[in-house]
Amino acid sequence: MGMAVGGSKGSMSEPNIVPLIDVLLVLIIIFMVITPTTPQGLDALVPQPTPPNQKPDNDLLSKTIVVQVTSNGKVLINQEQVAWDTLGPRLEDIFKERAEKVAFIKGDDSVEFAQVARAIDIMRGSGIDSVGLITAKIEAGQ
Questions:
Q1: N or C: which end of the chain has fewer CB within 10 A?
Q2: Domains in the chain and their CATH numbers?
Q3: What's the rounded Cα separation, in Å, for the pair 112 and 120?
């Protein structure tokens, strides 16, 4: 509380800022509670390139499924061309007997991300748990 000292005659009113500070502290607490603290986004798996002095494991390469979206709108599963409407059922057949449902997706440089997102959506809809991303640098081993 404040008190005015002076010789002025007449009533003098001063604003009381204590309730204003209380309201501001309550608002700060409310905004801190409703603001999410965990980042939102997609989890991404990135395949690790083999070291330069080690040859690639053929057994691992035969198990790896890579879906590639080409610049002319075609979709490939491990270099085998499939149509967009048969991509989901084909992936379901491939992963029917596998315990690990992990696949990777690769898009050409000139492909729009909407096409890659469409392929990821089909992959997730066909039962694949984790979808990894392959970039040009990872493929080159950098």
A1: N
A2: 58-140 (3.30.420.270)
A3: 13
Q: What is the rounded CA–CA span in Å between residue 126 and residue 84?
A: 13
pLDDT of residue 57: 57
Contact 133, 104 (CB under 8 A): yes
Q: Going by C-beta distance under 8 Å and a sequence separation of 6 or more, which residues neighbour residue 129?
A: 101, 102
Residue 50: pLDDT above 70? no
CA distance 64 to 67: 10
User: What tens digit of pLDDT does each residue of 55-96 get?
Assistant: 665 555 567 888 889 888 889 888 888 988 888 888 888 888
First to last CA, the chain: 67
Angle, alpha carbons 100-107-75 (nearest 5°): 75
